[in-house]
Design brief:
CATH topology of the largest domain: Recoverin, domain 1
Number of helices: 8
Strand content: 5-15%
CATH architecture of the largest domain: Orthogonal Bundle
Low-confidence stretches: 1-5
CATH superfamily of the largest domain: EF-hand
Number of domains: 2
CATH class of the largest domain: Mainly Alpha
Shape: globular
Order of helices and strands: HEHHEHHEHHEH
Structural class: mainly alpha
Helix content: 55-70%
Length: 151
């Protein structure tokens, strides 16, 4: 788990509650099947190769532990630290393989995996990265550039 100084007890309780929503069989890990159900429920690409890429980026052995989940939620992912890795993750959700994602999908992903961002912060980041066109499509290359400019 995260060190006590990293996450306050109230926030840790919220992370535990969120984790339990994903961990349907209460075995203390989110496995491939559980993550597949989650992705379907929020309208994400639920192709097996997409799910495997996400789980491998976040966790290991087709599973995500609570510690790994907390690391994602607190922005301390160790496996996904280069721009190339982030772009590869976005490519997973690029259904048309044209360098774009839907803004609603991006918002949901950021709110799910980076819970420290408010809805307003997510929207501001989307707006700064080009805001998408009138159909809600965002070119993720400039968006990822903006994410790395924040570091």
């Amino acid at each position: 788990m995260a060190e006590k100084s990293d996450v306050d007890p109230a926030q840790m309780a919220q992370y535990r509650d969120a984790f339990k929503l994903f961990d349907k069989n209460n075995d203390e890990v989110i496995d491939f099947k559980e993550f597949e159900e989650v992705t379907k429920s929020i309208g994400m690409d639920s192709k097996p190769e997409s799910i495997k890429l996400i789980i491998d980026t976040i966790g290991s052995d087709n599973k995500i532990s609570f510690k790994q989940f907390v690391d994602v939620m607190t922005g301390k992912m160790k496996n996904m630290d280069t721009k190339k890795d982030v772009l590869r993750a976005f490519q997973t959700f690029d259904e048309k393989k044209d360098g774009t994602v839907r803004s609603g999908q991006l918002t949901q992903l950021l709110r799910t995996f980076y819970g420290v961002m408010s809805a307003a912060e997510v929207q501001a980041l989307i707006n700064e990265a080009g805001g998408g066109d009138s159909s809600g499509i965002i070119k993720y290359g400039p968006f990822v550039d903006k994410l790395f400019d924040l570091k």
